[in-house]
């Protein structure tokens, strides 16, 4: 009997021990950091100091910094590709990395271990990306001079400025995100500096559904039925839409973008020529025929007088 109870008692003891050391661990780290900048990796946990054994920070599963309570010295630095450790601002709670390069991108985490009982718990992985922002607004090409006609297809290309990672391109027409079916994405291209950029083409048939009524037209100008307002938005990360889909103006959501550029233009669409009224056309044709007959009679009379 006692022999059968012993394993159960051991399991219960282990369960109580693990239950007694359950604690919270999380790593605070920004999603994006600009190249050459610094980042603070803050490891939050709920372990009392007298129970704490060690804390380790890791990138892609490899140690980059370690704190062991009671060891002299308590801190140990491991080589971190693409970053330099800031000793002045690194301790048992946080690690500061400076002069970040692209190689420092990766998934970061921290692990907290207790002394009694021996127990280790890791935070969730947090992705960090070192970026180089776009240096200019996107470039829109393909617009023809003058007015467009109703039913004509509008084809425009938007090319993002080189960056790393590659900026996402979003077309917005009259304040609304364009359906992906109207877009053609061309493969990204790489520059000599290892930056990338891409181009997205918009193909839009102009109709009453996408033309805004035009304001008053200047005297002497060709009649315009309306305008199409176009915006090319390039963001890192990708565009997440609008706060209110029913609002008819550019109002990005509350998502914070590490990098954002935009370019806009307005296209004028010519008013369609109205079809003539059938009755008016008949009257016009009758008047034209009468006028032609009168002219013919007058010419004949002049010729007759001249013949005399």
From TrEMBL:
It comes from the Eukaryota. Keywords: Signal. InterPro entries: Ig-like_dom (IPR007110), Ig-like_dom_sf (IPR036179), Ig-like_fold (IPR013783), Ig_sub (IPR003599), Immunoglobulin_dom (IPR013151). This is Ig-like domain-containing protein. Gene3D superfamilies: Immunoglobulins. It comes from Cloeon dipterum. Residues 7-129, 138-177 form the Ig-like domain. Residues 1-19 form the signal peptide. The keyword Signal applies. It holds the Pfam family ig.
